[in-house]
Amino acid sequence: MINDNDIIDTLEELEAFLRLVESGKLGLDNAAGIALATNNADGRPFIAVLDDNHQLLLGRWVTQEVYDNGKDLVRNAPQQRH
Questions:
Q1: Which of 1, 14, 22, 82 has the fewest CB atoms within 10 Å, counting from its CB?
Q2: Cβ neighbours of residue 8 under 8 Å, at least 6 residues apart?
């Protein structure tokens, strides 16, 4: 499920999205992982929230810049702010 009108276009928005997923505030049951991926049909990049069977629970489009520069943020998770 990807909302075509909701595009993450900054690293700050990506970080905020990751924090929402990790905190459980989006109410996703069985969320097991987060990955940056590309759509097979058109190559468009998106962030995917996956369940433990690697099925898509939630996705949001991201800009190419966020895809290129947000990989470490997704891989390492946002750091806690003090």
A1: 82
A2: 14, 17, 47, 60, 61, 62, 63, 66
Q: Structure tokens of 41?
A: 């049909």
Burial state string for 43-81 with b = 16 or more CB within 10 A and e = fewer than 16: ebbbbbbbeeeeeebbbbbbbeebbeebeebbeeeeeee
What pLDDT, in 10s, does the model give residues 39-71?
Answer: 999 999 999 999 999 999 999 999 999 999 999
User: 36, 73 in Cβ contact below 8 A?
Assistant: no
Backbone angle region of 77, left / alpha / beta, with phi > 0 → left and psi within -120 to 50 → alpha: left
Indicate if the alpha-carbon torsion angle 72, 80, 17, 35 is positive or negative: positive
